[in-house]
Model the fold of this input.
Amino acid sequence: MNETTNQMSLLDAIGFSAPGETQKSKKDPSQTKKKPLKKSQAKKEDAPQSGAPDKRDTGEVRPGGQPPEGAATGTSPQEAVRGTAPHSANASAPPEPLHLDDFLCFALYSANHAMHGVYKDLLKEIGLTYPQFLAMTVLWEKNNVPVGTITSKLQLDTNTLTPLLKRLEAMGLLTRTRNSKDERQVILKLTRKGRELRKKTERFSSCVFTASGLTTDEIMDLQAKIMKLRDNLRKSDQS
Done:
């Protein structure tokens, strides 16, 4: 017992502890307290890892009210440059192209074509074409007139009208004579056959009226509007 005591005293003297006491002196790892980190280390741990987006920065507004780069704005850079952003209040859609039936000129053209169809059957009875019928109508209104009168009325040039008048002369419906006072002027005059031909056309108006399906007032109103349109277009073309 004394030896043991002496050995323990000797170990204490040279700085060693007994085996049992050494185990007791070891601290429990769970009870070990962590040392507080320095400020520089704390900032590094709080900073996001490189390459990983920080969710807290989404929707961040920069000074001046501009959103950060890459933030969702609903408009791609390409659309913003081209001005083709969808649902843009300032973007105006281009006008849709007109369909054929929307053209006024086609409405007039097709109506005129249909009118020719009605007259074609009627003119077969008297052996005239529609332009020939119009020329004869001018002479029925006023006979013994220069060629210029028909040219002005029908809005036709002389080169177009001359072959037509020659044909009517060959049919015995009119005569063409030089003006004795001015040989440059050709006078047109109906023959007896030409005057009598008018009686065969008296029913044409009623046939066209029936085919139109319009009332008298509607026809008069339509004719007035078409003639006004014609005159306006002529003025526009001359200006």
